[in-house]
Amino acid sequence: MIKLIGKVVSGKGEGRKYIEIYRDVLKRKLDIDPFPGTLNIDVGYDVSKIYLSLNPIIIEPPTNNYKPVYAVPAEIDDIKGYVIKPFATVHGWNILEFIAEISVRDKLSLKDGDLVEVTLIKRIHY
User: What is the number of structural domains in the chain?
Assistant: First the structure.
């Protein structure tokens, strides 16, 4: 497990669109029905090596028009979900995109600038 602390930041609203596009694949591959949207967390530095060392799940795109997505099991305040990283994204490796079955922002009453701790969990199964 790796714990990272970062600030909640607003995205561009693209997460909602892409969660809807990938929803069936995410349900099948991750066994969750994700809330349409992501919680964006800026940890302030490049976490690519840390993230990739955790054996992310590769989510294949629903059609050839899209790219794969990495997913690593994660938790925020006992809310289980995944930190996803699309192969094609405008976000740098300092931004974590957390998905869960609920709106984490609403559940935890988070606003931009709030600090959150994200626990990334290494997958042991390949």
Answer: 1
